[in-house]
Amino acid sequence: MSTQLDPISVARMPEKQRESTIRGVLEGLFKMKQDDAFKALKSVIQTLAEKATDDEYINWCITTMRILASYPDDVVKAGLTLRRNVVSSLDKRLADRDAAIISRVLNMLDNNTRQKLMRNMP
Fold first, then answer.
1. Would you say 68 and 114 are in contact if contact means Cβ atoms under 8 Å apart?
2. pLDDT tens track for 64-84
3. pTM as predicted
4. What is the mean pLDDT of the chain?
5. Can you give the three-state secondary structure of the chain, one letter per residue?
6. 65: exposed, middle or buried (C-beta count within 10 Å: 0-12, 13-18, 19+)?
7. Which domain of life is it from (predicted)?
8. Are 45 and 83 contacting, i.e. CB atoms less than 8 angstroms apart?
């Protein structure tokens, strides 16, 4: 994952372009060492939690969750575990904002996607 990535700009992209970009980000994340993936994802989530509007944050998260749910369960579980660990390392205010956004996103997803994510949550 490039340190040049601006998740807010990605969140503002048209849906297909955003999906393609986030899919590439996830593929890159999956190829990283655990510590590097943690740092990269923390940078993205922290930027979104600090600076994104609710709509931008939702756009990023809903696209990411839909893509993540397209992978096998073991990959979904690993991705959600990494995300949970990152969020738990954030300042409480940012973690609380993230939790509120994710709750909204889960309610916006189709039932099959939501169920797959829920059963793989750590």
1. no
2. 999 999 999 999 999 999 999
3. 0.93
4. 96
5. CCCCCCHHHHHHCCHHHHHHHHHHHHHHHHHCCHHHHHHHHHHHHHHHHHHCCHHHHHHHHHHHHHHHCCCCHHHHHHHHHHHHHHHHCCCHHHHHHHHHHHHHHHHHCCHHHHHHHHHCCC
6. buried
7. Archaea
8. yes
